[in-house]
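Blinded run. Sample ID left blank on purpose so nobody reads anything into the name before looking at the predicted structure. Input follows.
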Amino acid sequence: MILIDGKETAHTVRAELRAEITSACSRGVRVPGLAVILVGNDAASQVYVRNKIRACAEVGIASFAHRLPAHTSQQELMALIQRLNAASEVDGILLQLPLPAGLDTHACLLAIDPAKDVDGFHPENVGRLSLGLPGFISCTPAGVMELLRRYNLSPAGRKAVIVGRSDIVGKPLALLLARQAEYGNATVTLCHSQTADLAAECRSADFLFLALGRPRFITADMVRQGAVVIDVGINRVADGLCGDADFTEVSKKVRAITPVPGGVGPMTIAMLLRNTVQAWRQHTA
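Blinded prediction complete.
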């Protein structure tokens, strides 16, 4: 059984990005810049932002943190986004979600310049992904695909089942797995709360991707012998963090599996850094 180590893979990706940035800056190119907007005092969001800023520093990306009070108005937030869109030192803009009640998340995401949308949430980048055009890919699905590539686990010609249809993970992951590209060409089934006989769908999968947010919901009897299981779920339970799969039992049946924590999670930030470097390349070309 292969234990897919996202933490170590993310470390390797960061080292590659750091080397690229160091080499370019030695030739006089300016450093990449990522602006992070945090509105309000959500404790989990503060931790996520702190981790992202620390990761930027590790690879040589300048981070510009904008911490706004929860009572910030829609107009104030939109004005900040427009200033960051115009700022030459900012290559990427990250709007930490969720926003406080009363703010229009959709309008704010639409306001971000698609060329600086390093989260890959803007409709233009989503559309580019659906058409197979270059653009920014949502970080968690990108991290999943990077793990498949690094571990040489190709889904081409195989049955891939995704449990969870969110705009951030399930839908873009389905597009990535089905596209005509390296580590694509899978036959994809996208499952959700209304799927009839979910257990049977899961058992049919050569590659099973879990993003439903229910702790240890997928049990060993729902998984095919020798399958590859990529667990995107991160759930806080009494004994710590766990994924959407019952890792102890499922891991006895599979060819490869990601742990939680230490699987997909670290790759999400690594892909945010990679998207920022991609934007920087385009802006400094």
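Unblinding after everyone has recorded impressions. Residues 139-265 form a domain with the Rossmann fold fold (CATH 3.40.50.720).
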